[in-house]
UniProtKB/TrEMBL annotation:
It comes from the Bacteria. The chain crosses the membrane at residues 33-49, 55-74, 129-151, 157-176. It comes from Micromonospora jinlongensis. The lineage of its organism: Bacteria, Bacillati, Actinomycetota, Actinomycetes, Micromonosporales. Keywords: Membrane, Transmembrane, Transmembrane helix. This is Integral membrane protein.
Length: 185
């Protein structure tokens, strides 16, 4: 039986290492999406402001923000899901196999819990939510408002702008929903 628990322990440690590698990769990719979004916004705004540009080009900004924002959100959720799985599944199984109890059991992958337990976590999570909405949703909605106020009011483009508004609103709802604002989990 001891060989079986040692093998299971080794498999769990390998799983932990692989998941931490995936988490690290996803964090890097997710964070680079912010730069891609800012660069894309600059391109759309720059094209709009050229002497031959037109305000209808602003309708390109919401799809850019939507695609990059959704990709950001999915990666961010997977980063959180990996952490949750390590805290709630892998760590307890390793503790059990090691025969750890009480504080010893809590010490398995302690960082996975500790960094979520400080008194400033909630402030950081609300701040991050504001930054995420400000990066992916506010610029898209701003572009839409500018288009509605000053742009060419063609029926087809107005229809597109309404659909884009609904899509950006859906993205904002999902960002709020997945913000992980609970104190601990």
């Amino acid at each position: 039986m001891a060989d079986s628990s040692v093998t299971t322990e080794k498999l769990l440690l390998v799983e932990y290492e692989r998941l931490k590698d995936e988490q690290k990769t996803r964090i890097g990719f997710r964070d680079n999406l912010i730069y891609a979004t800012l660069g894309s916004m600059a391109g759309v705004v720059g094209a709009t402001l050229t002497p031959k540009g037109n305000l209808g080009l602003l309708l390109l900004l919401p799809p850019v923000c939507l695609v990059l924002g959704w990709t950001y959100l999915v990666n961010d959720e997977k980063v959180s899901a990996i952490g949750r799985y390590l805290r709630l599944t892998v760590a307890p199984r390793l503790s059990e196999l090691a025969g750890a109890t009480g504080d010893e059991a809590a010490a398995v992958f302690g960082w996975e819990v500790a960094h979520r337990s400080d008194s400033d976590r909630l402030i950081r999570k609300y701040s991050q939510l504001a930054i995420d909405l400000g990066t992916f949703c506010v610029p898209a909605l701003t572009a839409l408002v500018i288009y509605w106020v000053a742009g060419p009011h063609r029926v087809d483009l107005m229809t597109v702008s309404v659909m884009e508004t609904l899509a950006i609103a859906a993205l904002a709802v999902q960002m709020i929903r997945y913000a992980d604002l609970a104190r601990e989990r």
